[in-house]
Amino acid sequence: MDKLTVIKVGGKIVEEEATLQQLLSDFSKIEGHKVLVHGGGRSATALATKLGIESKMVNGRRITDAEMLNVVTMVYGGLVNKSIVARLQSMGVNALGLTGADLNYMRSDKRPVKEVDYGFVGDVKEVNSDLLADLIHKGVVPVLAPVTHDKKGNMLNTNADTIAGEAAKALTKHFDVTLMYCFEKKGVLKDEKDDDSVIAEITRPLFDQYVKEGIIQGGMIPKLENSFEAIAAGVKNVIITKADEIGKNSGTTIHG
Amino acid sequence: MDKLTVIKVGGKIVEEEATLQQLLSDFSKIEGHKVLVHGGGRSATALATKLGIESKMVNGRRITDAEMLNVVTMVYGGLVNKSIVARLQSMGVNALGLTGADLNYMRSDKRPVKEVDYGFVGDVKEVNSDLLADLIHKGVVPVLAPVTHDKKGNMLNTNADTIAGEAAKALTKHFDVTLMYCFEKKGVLKDEKDDDSVIAEITRPLFDQYVKEGIIQGGMIPKLENSFEAIAAGVKNVIITKADEIGKNSGTTIHG
Fold it and tell me: Which residue, of A93, A101, A155, A174, is most buried by count of CB atoms within 10 Å of its CB?
């Protein structure tokens, strides 16, 4: 099977002119098949503010009412996505911007209301990867916006990390997939205060040990749990790195 | 060669809830391969107004400065396009929303400044229809937003009629193409005051005669000239009809 790299970059990097240009230039140089997944939260908040729409967040997640859904559809699926696609095309990358509604590649259900009503937020239920894989084999580079649909006519706001993970898992049917998450740090650190103390490789037993020893803690635990889940679903490697290090053999690699 | 219908619908129809739903329902029932091209001017103007951006028009064409380009990219490529795609998916149509940057399917040059500086407006220079045709053969229905790119990293605002005409012409390489323009009237009328006086068929000699006789006049002349240009470039038929008549054998058909 051909190799495929699915790279997720956070909003901040794709929303600032200088970092976006550098990131896309680095991304364009990565060999082989690839997929880019992007955020765009800051731009959505900025547009919402200009329109007098309040951005409500609970536990770092956006509450998406009908007005905010229009904003994220415009910003994620339109402005940020097409800006990336046009720039990649200028670099010779045959990019194709997609929301989950396009080609029905990712369907989600509106999140049930429990303690919190997140509004028009989607939990991924189905990924149709055949047409996507076919395009990738033809040299196309999908650029995935963090919006899905419910196949009942509605768009739904969906976390970009989730999109990357679900797309990567589904594409294991067609490719040897490496999933790369770009964060603020160079990888999983042995010492939080030392940016260069990156742990090069983590396996499940090592992870359990590091958690027991308190080396890995807090928000990194669910991130790594998600990574092991992706590995269990067939993803070959998960790499946690910094956006300006993509294309280099750095960061933390999570194996099965 | 397989048949393909390229249908262009104006902004007004796709921007009002009731007419949009009816249009897409009619469109979903059209047999065979098809492409939908949409406008979105009213929504762009509405968003621009909310953002305090002035909409400047010259000869019915929008002057697109940098701020307005962001608005049209968001509205045409994001909100209107994805709203259509999601609804079509709910009707079982495997829609794929595209701007010219996606798959580099339509490249344009920024319009040179003459008497009027239209700003970030693109004149179409190149259509790459191979991947598009391949997707259509696989049952995908492209939904084309009126935005192109210059392959230098910039999006450009482009007239939806032009997009429909250029896409139709390029796709004649792969299909027997019928190009359908939806207007306010049921077709080209023999008597402007009589909505039912539709001329069923127009050929070049008949057109010349009608113009001489003053039956066809004003804005309809350039529209028909464009239709004959499409015919000359290989399009089989151009049909001018009303949006609520698509799928019926009505309207005016322009032959070579």
Answer: A101
Residues B28 and B149 occupy one common structural domain? yes
CATH number for the domain spanning A103: value is 3.40.1160.10
Domain containing A31 equals: 3-183
C-beta atoms of A89 and B101 within 8 A: yes
Q: Which residue of A has its CA nearest to B49?
A: A51
Q: Are A155 and B131 a contacting pair at CB < 8 A?
A: no
Q: How many angstroms away from the CA of B152 is the closest CA of chain A?
A: 5
Q: Which residues of A touch B151 (CB under 8 A)?
A: 89-90
* Mutation to test the A interface, candidates B20, B47, B50, B96, most A Cβ within 10 Å: B96
pTM, full prediction? 0.96
Q: Which residue of B has its CA nearest to A154?
A: B86
| Cβ–Cβ < 8 Å for A141, A88 | yes
3-state secondary structure at position A130: helix
Beta strand extents in B153-200 (DSSP E only): 155-157, 176-183
Q: What is the ipTM of this complex?
A: 0.95
User: Where do we find the tokens 């794709």?
Assistant: A14
B76-113 pLDDT, tens digit each: 999 999 999 999 999 999 999 999 999 999 999 999 99
Do residues B223 and B164 both lie within one domain?
Answer: no
- How many Å lie between the alpha carbon of A77 and the closest alpha carbon of chain B? 5
Structural domain count of chain A: 1
Question: Among candidates B79, B73, B80, which has minimal Cα distance to B38?
Answer: B80
Residue A141, amino acid: V
Query: How does DSSP classify residue B83?
Result: H
Distance between A2 CA and the closest CA of chain B, angstroms: 21
In a domain, A174, yes or no: yes
In a domain, A15, yes or no: yes
Select from B163, B169, B146, B155 the least CA-distant residue to B11. Answer: B146
Kindly state the tokens that stand for B238.
Answer: 């151009």
Q: B78, A83: Cβ pair inside 8 Å? A: no
Cα–Cα distance, A247 to A245 (Å, whole number): 6
A78 and B83 within 8 Å at the Cβ level: the answer is no
Give chain B's mean pLDDT.
94
What chain A residue is nearest to B99 in terms of C-alpha separation? A82
Find, among A181, A201, A180, A199, the residue nearest to A189 by Cα.
Answer: A199
Q: Which CA distances in Å does A15 have to A10, A24, A143, A161? A: 9, 12, 15, 17
Q: Is A138 helix (H, G, I), strand (E, B) or coil?
A: coil
